[in-house]
Predict the structure.
Amino acid sequence: MAAVQTAATQLPLFADVEEPDMMSGFSVRESARAKRLSIKVFPRGRVEVVVPKRTRPADVQEFVEAHRDWIRKTRASFAAEHPPEPFALPVSIELPGIDRRFCVRYERADGSKTVRYRVRGNTLILAGCTADESQCVIALKRWLIALGKKEMLPRLRALSAETGNAFKTMHVRGQRTCWGSHSSTGTISLNYCLMFLNPQHLRYVMIHELCHARHMNHSQRFWGLVGRYEPSYRRLDKDLNNSWQRIPTWVGIY
């Protein structure tokens, strides 16, 4: 869960630029839903500025400057509660959401500038320029996307049939600010980080997004429909606020 500072009041959580001064991880995100500028500080220290479309860079800079003290204090508060975790490439990957566990093996190839992945049973093999950590992370994320499509699509189709709520296509992404979304065209996007959570959370997010096929809002009717298929939705929805702690540091989402 992130701490949020806005130009007027708090907003719901939903193009990178070079960060000014000493705040690592600073990014700017345009949002069609944003009515005013807001700053989010995530527990591991990443700072994100959410802005309405067509916001001038000068206005963003002025807003950040005005809230520098708040950003520093918030990051310090998070650091005291959640000690920084050192970055390390994984040697094993646990994915409780889909009940899978993989060992990771690195094979260095001199002269290679990229990293490719292949899977043998429950072993994930990264080959190529494995001395480059950033290239390894890129390959790991490509694998998560491919695995998410393979594992989550059958589950989503089964829940679609169970709930009677249809969708057209499913995308798997590494969204920074949401677990899932449902577009007006019938496309459901799911965050591959859901595979790191419990199966109940993955199922709840799928039901949540499927119910948007009937209600593209969060009205009482929408929540009533969600509750019909997941009576524990309130607890599960609240759990998701702190589920970032289950996401490994190397993923780089939170």
Q: What stands out?
A: Residues 3-81 form one domain.
